[in-house]
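Thread: Modeling a multi-component assembly for a lab meeting

Hi all, long-time lurker, first post. My supervisor asked me to bring a structural picture of a complex we are working on to next week's group meeting, and I have zero experience with this. I have the sequence lines for every component (235 residues in total). Could someone generate the structure of the whole assembly? Inputs are pasted exactly as I received them:
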Amino acid sequence: DIQMTQSPSSVSASVGDRVTITCRASQGISSWLAWYQETPGKAPKLLIYSASTLQSGVPSRFSGGGSGTEFTLSISSLQPEDFATYYCQQTSNYPFTFGPGTKVDVK
Amino acid sequence: QVQLVQSGAEVKKPGASVKVSCKASGYTFSDYYIHWLRQAPGQGLEWMGWINPNSGGTDYAQKFQGRVTLTWDTSTATADMDLSSLRSDDTAVYFCARDFPYCPSLSCYPGANGMDVWGQGTTVTVSS
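Re: Modeling a multi-component assembly
Sure thing. I ran the full set together rather than chain by chain. Output:
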């Protein structure tokens, strides 16, 4: 199975800050990577697919990049509704696997 | 609107089985694979498998092979997940999610773009 790691595991930030999360795959996955946002008590929400394509309806302050084994999710100007946990998922090989998550909380 | 609505919380004893249902609405049920995932308390997401509601084809993560069965009913636009021989470490929130396929031509690749619509989650507690 492809192992996914994320860093940092948590980050404290303020509204208006830029936040960047890194996701690494244990082997090359080209651009087959998705990012999700999860808030307590709610189901995950697809933010980005194919590493850098913004899902319909997702604000443009979210962006994704990378290919191969290293990927990033950036939030350009953190908004109150962005405090959440973010997961990356490789969609290259079965079984699909997720990173352990990065929690973005209030500084 | 497009949505997936799951059945309610379950409490089961070790060794028992559980069935979680997922009812789709707002789109043509047979056009999209349905994935099943789970999230143990304080843990990340774990993919369990998918079902093709058009053909009935399935694919399961090896970890769950032999214990999980995915079924569907097109007449009710419902997908079900049966998990047997429950253990305490099966305690988790179980999600169904609609596939978001990558379709560059006449062929589509399930799961390649992730999952775009999720059910609300069903808590399954396994305890003696």
